[in-house]
Design goal:
The chain is mainly alpha-helical. Helices cover 74% and strands 0% of the residues. The longest helix has 31 residues. The radius of gyration is 21 Å and the shape is globular. The protein contains 7 helices and no strands. It has 2 domains: 44 residues; 161 residues. Helix 3 runs antiparallel to helix 4 and helix 5 packs antiparallel against helix 6.
């Protein structure tokens, strides 16, 4: 979905380069909303939910209280890792368009092309990781590798002069790989936390997603206030 959005943006930036930025973003919004509505309608009409012929008689799965997870140290560790991962990926994407245009002076189409490269590289690395058998040490090593790649990429972004702005495309590849490594491993850590406690997994995934959204919102608010 994100890659499709950046593809639409790249197409509009290329075809409508002579109009104002406001009109360009308006067309991006109209196009994305229209395509999204079509897919929602297709999903609602075309997806048939199978009926439950026989109620489950499994008594071994008892309901787990949400307070149960707050007693686990691993919950806080995974929450911190997941929150930091989403902060890095989401906040960087939010300010990337301003960076490539205002700081590097790149072409308007780079606002879509650079994030698209990041998502393509993330997709490729994620596909490569999908068959990986995760263990504790492997999760730590892969996550540490992704974090280190991101730190090096961040240093490159800070030090990158505007006259070498084309090097940003190379950094986009490393950022995409780092995003995938960190995101895949952090989500896998959630699976390790849940384990076989399937009755409580909804609270774990929901609460961590809530923490992610709140922290990203606060971070963006603070950064925007500082910028202003």
């Amino acid at each position: 979905a994100n890659l499709s959005l950046y593809g639409i943006a790249l197409l509009i930036f290329t075809l409508m380069h002579s109009v104002s930025v406001l009109v360009q973003y308006r067309w991006i919004a109209y196009t994305a909303i229209s395509i999204g509505c079509c897919f929602v309608v297709a999903f609602l009409i075309g997806t048939k939910e199978p009926g439950l012929n026989q109620p489950s008689q499994d008594k071994s799965l008892s309901r787990i209280s949400w307070a149960h997870w707050f007693k686990k140290v691993l919950y806080y560790q995974v929450a911190l890792v997941y929150m930091c991962t989403r902060l890095v990926t989401n906040v960087s994407q939010a300010f990337l368009a301003f960076y490539v245009i205002n700081d590097l002076g790149m072409h308007q189409s780079s606002k879509a092309l650079v994030p698209a490269i990041i998502y393509v590289c993330s997709l490729v690395v994620s596909v490569m990781l999908q068959e990986t058998r995760w263990s504790g040490w492997r999760l730590k090593n892969y996550f540490s590798a992704g974090a280190m790649i991101w730190i090096l990429s961040g240093i490159g972004i800070v030090l990158l002069p505007s006259r070498m702005h084309n090097f940003m495309y190379v950094l986009s590849i490393t950022i995409g790989a780092a995003n995938a490594l960190m995101t895949v491993t952090s989500i896998s850590m959630e699976g390790v936390l849940v384990g076989e406690d399937l009755n409580g997994c909804a609270f774990v995934y929901g609460s961590l997603s809530f923490i992610d959204k709140v922290s990203c919102g606060i971070a963006l608010y603070i950064l925007e206030s500082y910028q202003g």
